[in-house]
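writing this on my phone so excuse typos. first protein, seq and then structure
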Amino acid sequence: MNFLTDSLRSALLLVLSRDPEMLEIVGLSLKVSCLSTLLAALAGVPLGFFIAFTEFRGRRLAITLLNTLLALPTVVIGLLVYGFLSRHGLLGSLDLLYTWKAMVIGQVILIVPVVTALTIAAISRIDDRYRKTAMTLGAGRLRTGLVIFREARFGIVAAVIAAFGRVISEVGISMMLGGNIRGFTRTMTTAMALEYDKGSFTLAVALGIVLMTISLVMNVLLNFFQGRARM
């Protein structure tokens, strides 16, 4: 019990003192996660609209595939992207492996299905009369899409927040593609794993406190926007 309280006390002091190494790790984690979420939103939201509004052959199969990809293990994505970015891979000449950019690529692949599937779910809650009324009044596909986006905006924001929560706490992709290099690719989750292996718990617990705080804020925002989406 003394060990736990001592570790927690030391970790809190580390957080309050704004330790430079800890701030660097947190900053990189937020940078990678925010950029990954932004890119995934730019790809996933339009894709969700396309699937939701377009009748095409294989639509049900596409939705089933998206729902399946929601449970795709991060290590599988890490292994796949590693194969492309390694020295003998198709993209090996770009020299991206073990950089934060490689981590962004892997995380985007991880959460594009999340954003897309939840965008489709948000749009499906909107009464179809909005779309029919807009088209009756002469609105084109783009204008109609903007009308639906306005009505589904809270659900779509909730989808993006859920995607951010998915990547800020993942470890497999960051470890396999970033390499956990100090000062370059070390994120909160990979640093916590390393500190645990070293038997040094102060930094790990401090990063855990920061990560839990971020997760709490994300969950509060997620619940808020989900609640607004149901109104």
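second protein below, same order as before
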Amino acid sequence: MFTGLVAGTGRVAAVSGDGDGARIAVETDLAAELAEGDSVAVNGVCLTAREIGADRFTADVMAETLRRSSLGPLAAGDAVNLELPVAAGGRLGGHVVQGHVDGVGEVAAVTEEGFARVVRVATEQALLRYVVEKGSIAIDGVSLTVASVGDGWLEVSLIPETLERTTLGALVPGRPVNLEVDVLAKYVEKLIDRTTEAG
């Protein structure tokens, strides 16, 4: 389990494979904290670390993950957000993030607002049904508060700390981003559906 509090960024060193799967190598100081088989979130996608070096790790990305996330277009030199799983008893500073991406959105607009930056992300209504104003969402693995929701879009406001410590500071219109909605919303919907069917 993750919390959406990015531990740092890394840089893609290499990508190999095809549409049936890929292997990515990521350069990062966090590699020193990984062991083979550990989970690590890369742009919000939970992957399993395999070959570990002093300053890099590799991970396999299956075809399903390539289809459902923005990892497919990654290339050498791209920056990625990284997070290690929360330790038992650790602080849950963001929200519950599983690393199971629900879909890909596209940055529609970026607007400066004082010291903050407002980012509008266009996405499908099927995902927006789980998004509420002042609720939580993970964008490229970063736990954020939803500022507003409209027809086909959501907005978040990014503080300087987030802009500096994550890849979200480089977002521009047209860029794809991974979205993970609050899992609690999905569980609530399923429970309500079952209650309605039983009633």
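The chain has a mean pLDDT of 93. thats all i got for now
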